[in-house]
């Protein structure tokens, strides 16, 4: 199968055969096109460099999209019903990483919003990341020049902080990580 039909349920095996960039959320395919804008890629690159530099001191590792994050209620990561490609994924447990990507929820996920993905990132992915236990979720809004940071407390994203272009972002998960956003947003 080259490309899936919208709103039809598919398996991970189907996903592996598709052409182009796709995500599979609860068995439903989501097309990842059009290609991200230059501004989107610039922001992702700068955040990735900052996170990678910070993480170089420990066991956590940052990955940039395309990088499959396989989520499964049954923890069957060879046949998950959900595969997403966050813009940046930070994984702190090396056992979660294999040749296909990440098995289970990363510690930190970053999504840079674009007009074609903003609703999915704010709704479906927000709920998905919360459900599967992502400890921290950043939603970067290039239009409004903000980063919303959500922290997981008792299985729910309850901590929330919004940082603007004149702010220094403070991570909930990595307490000593701060990032001046002036040259990023």
TrEMBL record:
Residues 12-181 form the Putative restriction endonuclease domain. It comes from the Bacteria. Pfam families: Uma2. This is Putative restriction endonuclease domain-containing protein. It comes from Bacillus methanolicus PB1.
């Amino acid at each position: 199968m080259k490309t899936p039909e919208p709103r039809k349920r598919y398996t991970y095996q189907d996903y592996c055969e598709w052409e182009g960039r796709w995500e599979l959320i609860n068995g439903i395919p989501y097309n990842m096109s059009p290609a991200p804008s230059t501004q989107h890629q610039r922001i992702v690159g700068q955040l990735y460099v900052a996170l990678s530099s910070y993480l170089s001191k420990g066991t956590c590792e940052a990955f940039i999209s395309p990088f499959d994050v396989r989520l499964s209620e049954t923890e069957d990561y060879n046949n998950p019903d959900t595969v997403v490609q966050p813009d940046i994924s930070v994984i702190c447990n090396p056992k979660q990483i294999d040749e296909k990507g990440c098995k289970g929820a990363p510690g930190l996920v970053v999504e840079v919003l674009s007009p074609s993905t903003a609703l999915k990132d704010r709704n479906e992915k927000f709920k998905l990341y919360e459900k599967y236990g992502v400890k921290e979720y950043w939603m970067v809004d290039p239009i409004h020049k903000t980063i919303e940071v959500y922290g997981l407390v008792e299985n729910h994203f309850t901590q929330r902080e919004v940082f603007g272009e004149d702010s220094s972002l403070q991570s909930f998960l990595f307490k000593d990580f701060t990032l001046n956003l002036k040259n990023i947003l």
